[in-house]
UniProtKB/TrEMBL annotation:
GO CC term, one of those recorded: ribosome
Keywords from the named record: Ribonucleoprotein, Ribosomal protein, RNA-binding, rRNA-binding
Signal peptide limits: none
Similarity comment: Belongs to the universal ribosomal protein uL23 family.
Protein name per UniProt: Large ribosomal subunit protein uL23
GO biological process, one term: translation
Pfam families xref list: Ribosomal_L23 (PF00276)
Amino acid sequence: MIQYDIIRRPVITEKTNIQKEASNQFTFEVDRMANRLEIKKAVEGIFNVKVAVVRTMQVKGKTKRRGWIVGKRRDWKKAIVTLMPGERIDFFEGA
């Protein structure tokens, strides 16, 4: 897989901003078939940083209703990447 196919987008929320400041952790939406080693290599290649730990989880899509119509959001995979001490990703500095 290509690095940009593995890392889909960063997840930017209040919780992820707190994780970034407190523990040097960054959260990404990743390809559902990617494993931890592929995610680690992709982050290191794209952002030119050293990764310490990658934790992944499957996020189930929520069921949504609009009147009689019931739908479901898609399932996705989330990766929480912890960087080595002293490393940082400048992409998130303005967010």
